[in-house]
Amino acid sequence: MEVYFPYDYIYPEQIFYMAELKKSLDAKASFVVFYEKGHCLLEMPSGTGKTVSLLSLVVAYMLRYPDRLDKLVYCSRTIPEIEKCVEELRNLFKYYEQLDGKPPSLFAVALSARKNLCINDSVSSLRQGSLVDGACQRYVLFVVRMFTACFRKLDCMGGLEIIGEQLNYVDFYG
Predict the structure, then answer these.
(1) How is the chain split into domains, by residue range?
(2) CA distance 50 to 110
(3) Model pLDDT for residues 97-153, shown as the tens digit of each residue
(4) Looking at residue 118, what DSSP letter applies?
């Protein structure tokens, strides 16, 4: 399996890390007892390229064996770590594009707490996570109720077309 690594130099620790990770992914596919059906715990010191190593190997594995691995869930405690992961993934995709003429056909989503992503000023200004969560849920519930009330007034699918025209939305099945 060819693994693209987007930097000029790769450290021996990174190669070892990727080799152990691949053993774990292969174990998930073949149920090797030693690796406990694909579970893996790897540790590397700070600043040793864990993120790029993980992403390089997992993206290559997903492209080579899409039937064995179809998603990666990358969790972190801090926003800067998630941002770093997204940036490393962008760099890796650009590297694929340089070598293959196109980026990998994979989909990535970065998620965070409501308090970090909320774009409603009155809600995000609350700052505290539990307050933001509560206000967000109340606001979303209000919007859903408004939408439901409007939707109930429609007597047929033609009503959706009219609303779509008024809002300048393109209907998909029109």
Answers:
(1) 12-112, 121-167
(2) 18
(3) 999 999 999 888 888 777 777 777 887 788 787 888 888 888 777 766 776 666 666
(4) -
